Structure formats: C-alpha cells, structure tokens
C-alpha cells in the first residue's frame, strides 16, 4: 500500500506545489488585468472598476505580523489561491474580477510569507522555485497553444484540467504541514545583523520584474509573434526549448552554475534586457520618423515598414538568452531565503516592489494603447510601449550586486535531486504536446470550389473579442461568423495579444478555427486598435497604413486576395477614429488615396461616420456604397460599411444586429 504521508513529503512536493501556484497566479493576474481593462478602460472613460488594482497591494497585510507566519495561516491563504482559481472560470461579470482579485491577492500574501519560514534547505529551495517557475511557463504555453492562444484550462469542460491541478496543489500544501519545517527560529548571522529594508526591496523588485517579463512576454508567445510578425510556431518552439533547457540543466547538472561569476550574470542580464527592449523597439520604427508618430497631418498616410530578417536579430537573441530570467529568479529567491526577513519587512517590500510596481507596469503597458483617453498622464506614454520592457530588464539586473558568494554555490544541490527521470519524462510530454498543438491547431485552408459564382464579404468590429457588457466572447462571435460563412472577413478592434486582451490572440483564434489565411496589421507594438483580414483564398501581398490621429493610433490593413489567375481583389479593413470633422476628413482622404488606380476594391470597416456626413460624401465620390447599390437608399443609422469599386454587382446586403459585440456585423454577397 502506498504511504500517503511519505509520498507527499518526497523531494518534489514543493516543486509540484509551486509549479501549480505560479501557473494559477499568472492565469489569475492575466484575467484580473483583462477584466479591469474591459470594464474600466475599454469604454474610454475610467470607471470605479479600476479600483480592483488595489488587490495588488495586499502584501501590506503582512506588515502587521510581528511573529513568523504559522503553517495554518499559510495553508489557508494557499487554499484561497487554489479555490478562487477553480471557481473563477464558472462565474460571469464582476464575479470574475472579484475572484481573480482575491486569488492574486492571496498569492501576494502567500509567496512573501513563505520567505519568512525557517528552513534547513535554502539552497535547494531556491532551485526548486526557479524550476517551478519555468515549469509553470512551459505549462502555460502548452495550455494556450493547444487552444489557439486561449488558455484551455479555463475553457468549457477543459476546466477539469484546472481542478486536477488544484487538487494536486492542495495535497502538496498538506505535505508542507506534514514536513513540519516551521520550527522555533534559531538566531543566525542574518538575524544578528538584519538585512536593510532597501536590500529586501531591491530583491523583491527583481523577483517582481521576472514575473512582469514572463507575463508581458513568455507566458503566451503569440504576443511576441504579433510584435514582430515572426513565425508563430517557430517562436513557440524556440521559447519552449530554451525554457526546457533551463529545467533540464538544473535537474541534471545544477553544479554547472558554479561556473557563473557575478560579471557573467551582469553581462547576460544586460544583453538580455537590451535584446528584449530592441525586440519591441525596432518594430515600433516608423519610416522617416523614427519611433515617434508625427503630429503633422501632411505626413500621412505612412506605410508600415516591411519586416526583414535584420529585424528578427534581437528577437532570436532574446529567446536564446531567456533562461536568465529563471536563473535570476533562483538566485533572488535564494538570497531572500537566507535573509529570512521578518513579515513586516517583506510585507512592506512586496507592497511596494510587487504591488505598487505592478500597478505602474500595467499602466505603462496599457497607456500607450489609449494615450488620448486619460490625459494628461496618458499623453506622455504615446509611442513609449518599449519602456514597459526596458524597466523590468533593468530591475532584474541591478540586484545582482547584492548576491553573496554562497548564493552562487550549487555543489550541495547537485546531490539533492532524486528520480530525475520523472521530471524529464513529464517535461518531454509537455514539449511534445506543445509542438503538436502548435501544428495541429494551425489553419489548413482548403482551395475553394472553382465553380463558385459569388463571394460573401463580411466586416465586423469585434470589440477586442468581448460583447456589449464586456464579457469575453470569442466563441459567440465565432459562431456568428460561421453562420454567415464569409469568403473574406474584415475585422476591426482585433488588437488582443497584449495584457489588456489577456495575451490571447483573437485573429489567430478565428483563423485557426475557420481554417482561413490571415493578416493582422499593424504590429501590436505600434499600439493601434487592430484591423485584420481573413480569407478562404490565398493572400498574395499585404500592407498596413498609419493615418493621422488625434487620440489613438489608427491603421488600415490592405491585402490582395487571389480568387483565380485572372481575378484579384484589393481588400481594405479600415477603422478611422478622430475628434473633430476635419480629422475624420483627413483620415478618409488618406485611405482613399491608397485605392487610386486599383481595381476590384473592397473598403470595409467601422468608419465612425453615417450617411450624408462630409466623410461619407467624400467616400462615395470615389467608391460605391454596397448597401445603396442593393437597397437604393443609404443605411442612415449605420457606421459599419462596405464600399466597393464600380462594376461590382451586389446580390445581397445584411446587417446582423448587436449581441456578440457592441457593433452589428455587416455582410454582402457579390457576383463573380
């Protein structure tokens, strides 16, 4: 019979526990930020829901503890992380926001409290935490890859995955109690000369910066792909390989770390931070204008620079160097474990270095995308998206000078690991599942019927994949699209591959599920709201155009879609937005200038103007209104339109009313 107590007291109980706890924390942190964005910012006027950010300051509660945190307290808080994570996907509306907030809040008490425990294996525990974080990232990538970037474990019946992990984590929490590691504290040299609050704060900032980099970047590689127009499958595999190499190295040969010197860590971190920043920065580059969009209307439209292999050098370097974040996490954890800080000190340091710092980093990620809506603060962050990556890169580098020589010693650790084959086997299965998931879910468009006599064109503002009440609604929108079965689909507000969209990619999700070719432009680092074109037919070329903006960056996507050797359509997905009639007029004139001389133009989008307005009249002076061609009179109360070249016959034109987004979907059928 299995000895349950010995089973959960084995060498891997903490590894399993923290792998799951870290995964749950990243999932709930992602959901919390996404809900805050959808409820408090997406409406373009801040609401009281933004106060949910206060959950990130919960570590301040430890400030009131004068004695070590008891096992019972730690167990209760740990269970709160798990239980709230399991219940949260079952809820709707503000319930998601509250449960995600409680889960994140519980983690921000549990994790710093863990460092106050008296342990006899600080060196080993630091390694365990580093490996656990890497495993959590590997599992996050797997769960997102197998469901086209939407985390499958919080989705439909696949929530059973989360329940299995949650039960396992609960057993490991019990295992921590059975070990009886919290004992009467022995006075150590650190306690005779306690570490300063500044030292603990710097170490905390380093740990928090690792979490920030993972959240912004590696937990969902589709974000990297959308920054760079890089190959999604290649990026998934590259990030996974480097994560797995760290885990294998630390499990099989941790004493290799003994070769590391402080100057090597400085160099590795510095180059990684530079590569991470440049990966974003080079793709923000605007032809002729550097990284800052001009305010001169005469400069527009600006054609986005094509992505060449040179632009991918920082990307490749960043991925190759990425194991340094797990090494940093290991060393920073070791240093804090050796200090054994008092609850008040580490509570204060996490409240500032994790909570307040995390809130600042969230705003630095979000404000470049909505720079005109929260003045005057937000205006400062226009075109500053890269800064949200440079800052955490700096803060994982600075604390290195705090490391003591013993922190870099791994001789004892090399003798501690047992049953290495178990970890390596599980790791291999995760890697195989990730690679298989990337290939299986990728779209496989079939050649359309050559005998078709008509095409269905659809335009749809999907509001970042959420419905009118702000609930995530990928599948509802997908079913609406399937009911129309368009040959060409134009999307607006499709910029979701960032923390405000939960780091999931709605364009990739739709393209994978519909088996369609796709182009999403422009790159997310330019902070447009996102336009995209999906097609059953091959896309032979594509481009993105930036237009003059008064409060948010605007871009239009163009694709040439080949129907047959003698027929190609020039399709545009457009979403202008401006304050003032003059700015609206500039924008439509700019995009119409790109249609000059082209045949078979389909200009689709949410135009933010109605029939008989000046911008509408300018548009129909060049192109025809598809609704007017079919029904003779304009759709006076509509702002979603499809304009087309003369000579194209419209067989049908239909608006599908609100329900799955805050906009109706509009589709037409044209004769070939």
Describe the structure.
The chain has two domains: 4-440, Growth Hormone, Chain: A; 446-671, Endonuclease/exonuclease/phosphatase (Deoxyribonuclease I, Chain A, 4-Layer Sandwich). It is 48% helix and 12% strand. It contains 22 helices and 13 strands. Helix 3 (71-87) runs antiparallel to helix 4 and helix 5 runs antiparallel to helix 13. The N and C termini lie far apart (72 Å). Residues 181-191 have low confidence and may be disordered.
Q: What layout of secondary structure does this protein have?
A:
Layout: H1 4-8, H2 13-41, H3 71-87, H4 94-114, H5 122-145, H6 159-179, H7 189-192, H8 197-218, H9 222-228, H10 232-252, H11 262-284, E1 302-303, H12 313-321, H13 324-339, H14 343-366, H15 387-395, H16 411-414, H17 420-441, E2 454-461, H18 474-484, E3 488-492, H19 506-514, E4 517-521, E5 531-535, E6 539-547, E7 554-564, E8 567-574, H20 581-593, E9 601-606, H21 614-620, E10 624-625, H22 626-631, E11 640-644, E12 650-656, E13 665-671
Parallel strand pairs: 2-3, 8-9
Antiparallel strand pairs: 1-6, 2-13, 3-5, 4-5, 6-7, 7-8, 9-11, 10-11, 12-13
Helix pairs in contact: 2-3, 2-4, 2-5, 2-6, 3-4, 3-6, 4-14, 5-10, 5-13, 5-17, 8-13, 8-14, 8-15, 10-17, 11-12, 11-15, 20-21
